[in-house]
Structure formats: C-alpha cells, structure tokens
Design goal:
single chain, 886 residues, mainly beta, 7-stranded antiparallel β-sheet, globular
C-alpha cells in the first residue's frame, strides 16, 4: 500500500522510517483510509511491543507517517529462513501478547495478526506492525469491532490466500468469527496469535486449503493436527496453550491476551535453564555428527553446512563421511561410555548473553579487549564479514556479501586486524587474509591452507594445516606471514587427522586437536613446542569429537569445543587444565557450540551457538510444490543418518530415541511408523535389498562401525564385517554382494563382502568413499580425491574392480538413476541445494528439483520413481558471550 524510506529527523537527529502512500492512491479510498487508521490506532498506544508513530504529515500532496525505524526482520522472513527455537518462540509470543493486551485495553482490535505483521528487532524484541485494519471500539467495557463482512477489502498479503470483499484480515490467520463476518473482539486477535504460535512450533499452518473457501472450511469445522505429530519435541504445555488459543468457540478460548501471556510466561519460567541458554524446540540434526566424519574430506564437510569447514562443522579437521544416496552423512564412532566429567562449579552463576539474534552466523571471534565481535554472516547462500561493537550493538559490514566462502576469524593481539580464511566455491584450499578491524582492503597472506590456521600472538608467524593426498597424511606447519621459513611440527596418517590449532599466550607452544581411530575413535589435545619437538597429549575426558581450542591468558588451561558421546548436541565447551589435563564442562545443554575465543583478561568466551533443523519431505514425481512434510514417529529424524525405500513404497530411515539410533519404517505419508531395530549404539545408513527381504546398515553395536544385516521386520540381526571402520554399505541388485568403505588398510578404500558374511575383499587401493552400485549391476560409483588438485571427484568403475572408466567434477556422493544411465547427487557448490542428474556418457548435468534448500542432507527416489523423499533443513546460529564460567 505504500513505500517506506529510511530518513533522518533533522530536528531531533534520529533515524526514522517514513511511510508514504503510493502516488496513485486516491484520497478517500479504502487504502487511504487504512493508512490514516494505522496512524491513529498506533498513536493511541505507547508500548515497547508496538511500532511507535512519531508524526503524520504531507509532502507534495502525498501523506506520510513518520515512525520508529526498526532494524531486523519480520517473523515471516525468519520462519522462511529457519526454524524457531523454544526460548525465541516463548519470548516473542509473550511480547506480542503483551502488546495485544495494551491495544485491547485501549479498545483496539488489530484484526490482522500474522508473521508478516510481527517484526523481530536485532535485540530480539517482537513488535506489532500494521494497524491499518484496526479500529477503536465504541466501548471499552467490551472490546467489540463492529465491522462486518464486505465493508472494506481484505489486505492482499502474499503469503496466504485472501478473499477481497468478504472478510477483513488474512485468510489463513482468521478466527472463525472473522471468517463468518461476525462482530469481532479481543478474542479474535488471540485466535490469530494461536495460529502464529502453531506455525512457529511446527513449521506448518493449522488450517490449510487450496482455495479461500477450503481454508475457511478448515477454520470453521476441522481440528488442526496435534503439534506434537509434526514436531515430537513440542512441550505438552505449549500444545495445551496453542489448543486453548485455537478454540473455535470464543467463549472457550483465552478470554484475554493477559491470560495467554501469563501461561506463556509460566512455560518460559519452567523451561529456562540456570544459564538461560536456548533449548532447541525443533528436532534438530546433529551438526556435531557432521564433524565426526570418517572421510576427513574438507570439500564435502564444507558442503554440509553451507560449505563451512569450521563454524558449524564443529571439528577442526572438517571430516565428513558421506554415503551413497545421502548428501551429507555424519560418522558416529563406537558406542561407549564416556569418562565422567565434572560439571562446572560456575554453573549456578554462569551467564550466557546473545550478541546476535539473526540466526545467520557461521563463525565468530571476540577482540582481546572485548569491545568487538567479528562474525561471518550468511543469507541466501552469500557470505559477508561483520564487526559488532559489543557495548552499543552497532554493526558494521567490513566485507560485503559475496559468493566466496569465509572461514575462521581471529583478531590480532592489538585488536587492529582480523584474520580470516577465504576461497571461491571452485577452490580446494583456503587463503589466509588480513583486514583492518573497521574495514578496508584485504591483504592476501598464505594460500594452500587446509582446514585451519592461527596467527601467533606477535603477528609474525602462522600455524596451519596442510593435507598431502599423495602421502595420505596431514601436517601442522609454522611459517612466516608470507609462507616462508617453514617448520613441520606434527604429521598424522589418514584416517587419523589434525583439527584446529591455537598458540599459547607467549607464542612458545601450539595446541593441536587430533582425532585417531586406532582401537576406536578418540579425540585428543596435543601440545608441541613452536620450535619443534614431540607433541605431548593432555589427559582429557573421553571425547569422540573435537573442534576449536583457545588458551587462557595465563596458559593455565584451554577452552575446548568437544563432544564426549555420539548423543545429539554433545558438542559443548570444556575447560582443560594445562599441563595437568583432566577437564570439566563449561556448558551443558542441548545446543551445539562451535568456535571459541577469549578476551585478554580471560573473563569472557565468545562462541557460536546453534543447531541444524531438518525435516523429511516427500514430493510426488519430485514436484517441489506438492512436497509434504512428514511426521515420522517416536524419536528424532534429521535425515543425516540414512534413508531408503522398500519395493512396496515404504520409507526406512534412522531416528534417534534417547541415546540410541535405530532403524524405523513408515508409510510414504509418514503414517504407521514402527521401530525395526532395538540395538545399542548407532544404526545408520539403511539400504533395502531389491527383493525387500532384508536391510543392510552400519552399526556401532560391537564397538567400531561394522556392516550388519537384518530382515525387513527387524528379526535375525547379523554382523557381516569386523573392520571396525566399515561404513556406507551398498547392495548389488542381485542381493549377493555388499560394497562398503573401510579404513582397515590405513586409509579409506572400497571393499566388498557377501550378504551372508565371510571374508571381505578390496575393490580399490586409492582413497574412496560412498559407493553406489548401478541398478544393472555393472558399475560402482564412488567419491575419490584428485591427485592433481586434492579436490573430491566422482568416479565410476566396473563392479569387478579396476581403474575408473568415468570421472566427473562432482564432490557430492552419488546415487544411480533407475536406468543406470545417469548419476544423481546434491549440488553443494551453489548457494542453495537441489538434486541434479549427471548423464553417464558425459555432458552437462541438469537440475531435477527446485527445493532451493539451505541445507539438503539426504534424498532417495522410490523404486517406481514416483516419489522423492528429501531431508532438507536450515541452520540457525548466533554469537553468544559466556561470562562467570570459572
């Protein structure tokens, strides 16, 4: 209805928003009346949850409203970008309910509550916008809005169907009385807010239809699906609140916004932790699993979480194990009990405050003086580098949005510079850059870096990790800023790998993160002199994964990002004493923590805090517009750990229930979910035989991962291999052979074993991952690494073995087309992700779907080719500041 400008109030020297009517709007029209109504209604209200109206005026014959300038995004934009976590849902809903209570007290009914009219500021304050449909009531004793159907046109919002001339509001968010054109009161706004609550909790609308009439019918006559069916993690109390807000009979609904606000505040009180850290509401995929991969492939890891090898990948080596048909599969090592770790003695007083609230952060660091936080921001597949002034919450973009990828940010000791890693999407390695803290031209320092880097306290040397594919090893090296004067400090052979590294405060030592596989996966911290010598391990808890390291200023210990178990969200922050070792938790909640940096006084830690949210969708014929989100039963399904179809059109998948991961089966629409296995440890990567008799999968039941077989009904589980690193099974179409990847020879290669078990035989002697057998049984597609470029590529070899006959510049794991004439994969080098097809004879690949997903973690076509199952999700992460942690 108008155009909004950012402007400066020259009298009061403040930034404001000026909202003008479009030039073609006629004075006295419904649109013009709505414009003035917005100003009059909002001007009656003075509340932090309502956008402030400063003035109304006219310029060159066009009326305008001067209003509060808001920085942030609408709830609609946030819902489209990511899922909403429980603390955010509750906080924002309380703000809106409080604002409605204030409006209703003034006799004003908003009449158009929806995500597009709720604005979330950068400080996390929810504000009500657009009172253009609101009207003051004649009597405040009963807040009745006397407008009936047909007296003015409906606002034509884009997000849902509207029906001009029949009712006031946006159809999908209307109350029953609103849909019927009856007189409205405050309880109508409460119903609309209930719809918003439902959408935040489940990602879906409670009342849906292809036409306005169908939506009206749903609102008037149908009960919405229970939120817990769409999101198993929905608290029972929240479901109760939503149900009461969505009562069709307004006398049974909440009678006031104040009552709704009270119930929301009680739930928030009951769910808040002592550290006031957010708890994920949605069933969030375990990004830590991504970090615990066995393939140690930086290219693929980066693809999982918007191609960030650090940040949310959470492990410095950037290792990821992908399997045939799974875009990004997180490796889980042997299930075992972790050594007990003492909870932090500061747990009762530790404070965690949020520095950002966008959910788009992908890497962060704090300046030594604690005045600035630098972070990588990603929106719509493009990354930018920002600096935030902690005291004032002012943000400055120092590197504009680009298609290139940023990774790792670190301040210089004097706080004048920021170091970061960057590369184009086509490059296999990173380059280290330096940029002034408040912006300017970037200076290129060192190229050819793999995985991680860290600049010495004096700013003269750089420690970084280099991968040498021809030797199957990684090296931690120290050089000058121009790459000269090289010294190798540590070398490990694959499948072991090095992760992040950090200089001690005096520059004399380096701490290295290492992951080993001998005797089962384990993660360690090594300390080595910067001048060379033998690395010495620090005694630590039983970690299976490890990421960022940061020294305390007095070198008395390190803050370590690590995970003890294969449980979801196990990656937390720990305090590891030096030189004695030991360790205790700093954080202990359900969030994922990534990265860690400290202020020079050691009083505050800056870290990323986030989650990967994934949903299972089924699209008929791969049609994105018809894709339906499925509820998949007890446990959490994230799409990371495997997905396949049975010949009769049912879905087999891995879900997590408590500390276990087991196989489940459900109908194609998600109905009738049933657990197939009930085994300890992790059961991952299910593959159904072509005759539907059995399922093969990777299991950690016996220690390290091995290949197992089970009948389709879950009976007769049988271990088929004993390599303890055997993963990603693929079955030949005749059901006689299983091809899998294994590190039993010291590096990942392909092996095969009979479906009846027995001795395994090697198929390749080069680094090989994620096998897929063609439906005609002639070929095996797999991922390998180019000797020339060290980049991952897709190769095809005969089923009997031998050199590859085809190689493609594709770094995502393959699935075969049903006719064996093409390879399907998820394209991860584009800002958004979809399924593509590469013809086997060569030529350009073509895009098959249009999900435009931020993260697509898995896909599988049904055997008849009529249904496409996709696991797609979003990453939500922000920068937090942790204090009083010691």
């Amino acid at each position: 209805m108008g155009v909004v400008y950012r402007a400066e109030d020259t009298k009061l020297a403040r930034q404001v928003a000026l909202k003008f009517l479009h030039a073609d709007v006629v004075e006295g029209s419904a649109a013009a009346e709505r414009f003035y109504r917005e100003a009059r209604a909002a001007a009656l209200l003075n509340h932090p949850g309502i956008c402030v109206i400063y003035d109304i005026g006219e310029h060159q014959g066009r009326p305008f409203i001067a209003m509060e300038l808001l920085e942030g995004a609408t709830l609609r934009q946030l819902l489209e970008a990511r899922d909403v976590r429980l603390p955010q849902l509750l906080e924002w809903s309380i703000h809106v309910a409080d604002a409605l209570d204030a409006a209703h007290a003034k006799g004003i009914v908003h009449r158009d509550i929806k995500p597009g009219n709720i604005f979330i500021t950068e400080r996390g304050q929810a504000k009500l916008l657009d009172f253009g449909l609101a009207k003051p009531a004649a009597s405040r004793r009963r807040i009745v809005e006397a407008v009936t159907a047909g007296d003015e046109p409906t606002y034509a919002g884009q997000e849902h169907l509207t029906s001009p001339g029949t009712a006031v509001g946006t159809v999908a968010y209307m109350s029953p009385e609103q849909a019927l054109g009856e007189p409205l009161d405050a309880r109508s706004d409460i119903f609309s807010l209930g719809v918003v609550l439902y959408e935040m909790a489940t990602g879906a609308l409670p009342f849906r239809g292809d036409t306005s009439a169908a939506i009206f019918d749903s609102i008037l006559h149908k009960a919405p699906t229970a939120p817990v069916r769409l999101n198993p993690d929905t608290p029972a109390k929240l479901e109760e609140i939503v149900g009461k807000a969505l009562e069709k009979d307004r006398d049974l609904r909440y009678q006031s916004a104040a009552d709704l606000r009270s119930d929301l505040k009680r739930l928030k009180r009951d769910t808040d932790s002592t550290a006031t850290v957010p708890v994920a509401l949605r069933a969030a995929s375990d990004a830590t699993a991504v970090s615990a991969a066995a393939s140690s492939d930086s290219q693929v890891v980066a693809a999982v979480l918007r191609r960030h090898k650090r940040g949310l990948t959470l492990v410095a080596a950037g290792a990821l194990l992908l399997v045939a048909g799974i875009a990004y599969v997180a490796y889980r090592s042997a299930s075992r009990s972790a050594a007990p770790v003492a909870a932090t003695p500061a747990a009762g007083r530790m404070r965690i405050s949020r520095l950002t609230s966008s959910g788009f952060v992908r890497g962060a660091a704090i300046s030594p003086d604690g005045k600035y936080a630098a972070y990588i921001n990603e929106q719509e597949g493009r990354q930018s580098l920002w600096v935030r002034q902690v005291a004032t919450t002012s943000n400055v973009e120092i590197m504009p949005a680009t298609d290139d990828l940023f990774d790792y940010v670190e301040f210089s000791r004097d706080g004048n510079y920021i170091y970061y890693l960057g590369r184009s999407r086509t490059e296999a390695t990173d380059t280290l850059y330096r940029i002034a803290t408040l912006g300017g031209a970037s200076q290129k320092l060192i190229s050819g870096i793999n995985f991680a880097a860290s600049v010495s306290p004096d700013g003269k040397r750089v420690a970084w990790i280099r991968y040498r594919p021809q030797h199957g090893e990684e090296q931690a090296v120290v050089t000058s800023l121009d790459g000269s004067d090289e010294r190798v400090l540590a070398t490990v052979r694959r499948p072991d790998f090095l992760g992040s590294l950090a200089w001690s405060p005096d520059g004399a030592n380096l701490a290295l993160a290492e992951v080993t596989y001998g005797g089962g996966r384990a993660a360690h911290v090594l300390v080595v002199a910067a001048t060379g010598g033998s690395p010495k391990p620090l005694p630590a808890p039983t970690w299976l994964q490890i990421g960022a390291l940061a020294w305390l200023p007095d070198a008395s210990g390190l803050v370590v990002q690590a995970g003890e178990t294969s449980e979801f969200f196990s990656n937390q922050l720990y305090l590891l004493p030096y030189p004695g070792g030991g360790g205790r938790r700093i954080t202990n909640d359900l969030n994922i923590y990534f990265g860690a940096s400290l202020t020079e006084d050691g009083e505050s830690i800056a870290a990323g805090q986030g989650d990967l949210n994934s949903a299972l969708l089924v699209a008929p014929q791969g049609d994105t517009k018809k894709a339906a989100r499925l509820a998949t039963g007890v446990g959490r399904y994230e799409g990371v750990f495997g997905l396949d179809w049975t010949p009769d059109g049912r879905l087999v998948y891995t879900a997590t229930d408590g500390a276990r991961q087991n196989l489940w089966i459900a109908d194609a629409d998600g109905a009738n979910p049933r657990r197939i296995t009930d085994l300890p440890g992790q059961q991952q990567i299910p593959r159904v035989s072509s005759d539907g008799r059995y399922i093969v999968f990777s299991s950690s039941r016996s220690g390290g991962f091995n290949v197992w077989r089970v009948d389709l009904d879950g009976s007769r589980p049988r271990q088929l291999t004993d390599g303890n690193s055997d993963y990603a099974p693929a079955i030949s179409p005749d059901g006689k052979w299983i091809v899998f990847q294994s590190a039993r020879s010291g590096k990942y290669t392909l092996w095969k074993v009979s479906t009846d078990g027995g001795a395994a035989a090697p198929l390749t002697d080069v680094y090989s991952l994620n096998p897929a057998v063609s439906p005609d049984g002639k070929w095996v597609a797999y991922l390998t690494r180019s000797d020339a470029t060290a980049r991952m590529q897709m190769s095809v070899m005969p089923f009997a073995g031998g050199p590859p006959v085809k190689t493609f510049d594709i770094s995502s794991p393959p699935l075969w087309a049903r006719d064996s004439r093409g390879l399907l994969y998820i394209e991860s080098r584009t800002p958004t992700q979809d399924v593509w097809l590469q013809p086997l004879e060569g030529g350009k690949p073509r895009r098959l779907t249009n999900f435009n997903a931020e993260v697509m973690t898995n896909f599988a076509w049904s055997r008849d080719g009529k249904q496409l199952a996709v696991a797609a999700g979003t990453i939500s992460a922000d920068v937090v500041l942790i204090s009083d942690y010691r």
